Amino acid sequence: MAITLQEAIQIAEKNKYADKLVSIREYHDRYVMSYAYADGSVSCDSPMYIMKDTGEVGVFFPPDYSKEYYYSGINVPIPQK
Questions:
Q1: Which strands form 30-36's sheet, in the order they lie side by side?
Q2: Residues 58 and 17: beta-carbon distance below 8 Å
Q3: Nearest-angstrom CA–CA distance, 74 and 32
């Protein structure tokens, strides 16, 4: 079972730490979602990830990953509702 981008967004919305989804980065195994507050200020929390194969949610802390992995992510446009 693979989690689609739309399903990942729904999971992220249930677990969000700020008001507005501001970026999505796709990796081969996960989606990484970043949020900001309604007033436009950026949250200091690390982005969350949603695993594509399980829907597991976790914290994406860049120092935990190699440079190769980190830079392999692709920015994805946020779908309009």
A1: 57-59, 48-51, 30-36, 20-26, 74-76
A2: no
A3: 10
